[in-house]
Write a structure and sequence with these properties.
The structure is a single chain. The protein is 30% helix and 25% strand. The protein has 15 helices and 21 strands. The protein is α/β, with parallel strands linked by helices and 505 residues long. The N terminus and C terminus are likely disordered. It folds into 2 domains: 219 residues, Rossmann fold; 254 residues, Rossmann fold (3-Layer(aba) Sandwich). The relative contact order is 0.11. It has a 10-stranded mixed beta sheet with strand order 4-3-2-5-6-1-7-8-9-10, sandwiched between helices. Strands 13-12-14-15-11-16-17-18-19 form a 9-stranded mixed beta sheet. Strands 20-21 form a two-stranded antiparallel ribbon. A hairpin with an 8-residue loop joins strand 8 and strand 9.
């Protein structure tokens, strides 16, 4: 949040850009001058055109004054988004002999003249058209004409006072061609919105937005991811968990397996998250799906965010294990979203989760897996903090969250590139161990913040009948360390024929 000034009663002018009005907590103050800065390709023109189109809906006359682009280029941008610029006046302040009187747009001659004449041309144009919203693109041309900072600043100030008298809301676009550290425009403008366009070593480019200043208004500071889609810019406001609360039942819910409920103490509690950690192939995804199906059968909605494997593989394996997910997809209780982490920003992911919770009213969220999410975006230094904010949000919404974390190795000292266990309310550890010449699997709950959980380690198996969990293992020690030692006490391992007997029955 910025500024302590109470401005709730001030009128707001919406920008028309999805998410940006949320960042600005309603929009901008009307009849002020704002600076939108960013490198070429960052989305300034798209944002400005949407601003004028939003004014058109409110019957505010808008004009777009361009000093660099042509009318044809602006029209092409609009067409790429499926827009029409009818009702918006486009004025091209460049010398072009090929234009004729048949064009609807006015032509002002020429921009190569003295800066003062160019500014006077803009003033005369505004006086003649009397607009409510104005876009001036771009200030780099005026800066070149000015030739020195003092003259440039005086002319911008003159424009600012003129627009204020005319009661215009103005967006001035700047492509950051000024010397680094030049903040003259920042001091003049009522508000400053900065757009950034970054290239990763792999994957799609990353775009983010920051409101640097907004006088007299509260807004959400920091960086907010955004994308340019057909239809305009989509801003994904930074998630602030503290602002999202709702009441929910704290009664535990079953996982669908009595033995797993016993390990957890009372099952899974709404508003908590569980981390399933273990090596590849041990059954982390199957365990998460088993818990999710129990919720689906209770009529609750679930969202599954799949980062690692293909959706078809998950569907085939789940059906083979007597956990068919297709019926729940068909009746609308389950949404599985296949995600390419190289194409998704953290802000987009948080927005997708928030949409599932608030719009689709899901009660359980599965993230499979954290490895792909956290490692696929190495340029982001605070992904763990963003995950903390996301998990806090889900907890305050009463959602059960299941997170899968893969570890290196199969047996022995297993390690992970990341340590996110401190964020988890419950940690389930899945391990391989060997007995009687067979590779077996074990599960244990090593941490829970909600109940007095069982301290024992249980063996489990996965077959065509689903997941089966046995009694606590008493005859082995050192399973979690990866070096189990067999000390015969009583034979309580799962029978190797258990799956075959179940199939025959």
């Amino acid at each position: 949040m910025k500024d302590d000034v109470r401005t709730d009663r001030q009128p707001r002018l919406t920008t028309g850009t999805r998410g940006l009005d949320d960042v600005l907590q309603g929009g901008v103050t009307p009849q002020r001058l704002y600076l939108v800065e960013g490198t070429p390709g960052s989305g300034k023109t798209t944002l400005a055109l949407k601003f004028l189109m939003e004014g058109r809906k409110a019957r505010d006359r808008g004009i777009y004054i361009t000093l660099s682009e042509t009318v044809d280029e602006l029209t092409a941008v609009a067409q790429s988004h499926g827009w029409t610029l009818d009702g918006i006046d486009l004025f091209e302040m460049v010398a072009e002999d090929e234009f004729n009187s048949d064009n609807e747009q006015s032509l002002l001659h020429p921009s190569e003249v003295e800066l003062g004449e160019t500014v006077r041309g803009i003033i005369e144009l505004v006086e003649r058209t009397n607009p409510a919203r104005v876009v001036l693109d771009s200030l780099s041309e005026l800066r070149l004409l000015a030739q020195n900072p003092l003259r440039y600043r005086r002319q911008i100030l003159a424009l600012k006072h003129f627009f204020a008298r005319r009661k215009c809301t103005v967006l001035m676009l700047d492509d950051r061609t000024a010397e680094p550290g030049d903040l003259q425009l920042h001091s003049i403008a009522h508000g400053v919105i900065s757009l950034e366009h970054l290239a990763n070593d792999f994957g799609s480019e990353r775009r983010r937005l920051r409101v640097i200043k907004m006088r007299g208004l509260k807004y959400y500071g920091g960086y907010h991811d955004f994308t340019i889609e057909r239809g305009g810019i989509c801003v994904y406001p930074r998630l602030i968990a503290a602002e999202h609360h709702r009441s929910f039942s704290s009664e535990p819910v079953t996982t669908g397996l009595a033995e797993l409920d016993a390990l957890l103490g009372d099952g899974l509690f709404p508003g908590t998250n569980a981390l399933l950690a273990g090596p590849a192939g041990v059954g982390k995804t199957t365990t998460a799906v088993r818990c999710m199906i129990a919720a689906l059968r209770r009529g609750q909605k679930a969202a599954y965010f799949l980062f690692d494997e293909r959706l078809a593989t998950l569907m085939i394996r789940s059906k083979a294990l007597d956990m068919d997910l297709q019926p729940f997809i068909d009746n609308g209780l389950l949404e599985i979203r296949q995600i390419d982490p190289a194409e998704l920003s953290p802000g987009q992911f948080a927005s997708a989760v928030r949409s599932a919770v608030e719009e689709d009213e899901v009660s359980i969220v599965v993230i499979d897996s954290l490895n792909a999410y956290l490692q696929a975006m190495p340029s982001d230094n605070f992904l763990v903090l963003q995950m903390h904010e996301l998990l806090s949000y889900l907890a305050q919404q009463g959602v059960v969250s299941l997170m899968i974390l893969g570890q290196h190795g199969v047996t022995g000292d297993l390690r992970s590139d990341i340590d996110i266990s401190y964020l988890a309310d419950t940690v389930m550890m899945l391990r391989f161990f060997e007995a009687e010449g067979q590779v077996r699997k074990s599960i244990a709950v090593i941490k829970t913040r909600t109940s007095d959980h069982e301290r024992s380690i249980r063996e489990f198996s996965i077959d065509g009948n689903g997941m089966s969990i046995g009694a606590p293992i008493r005859s082995f020690s050192g399973i979690l360390s990866g070096s189990p030692v067999y000390t015969p006490k009583n034979d309580n391992l799962l029978s190797l024929e258990t799956g075959d007997k179940a199939k025959n029955e």
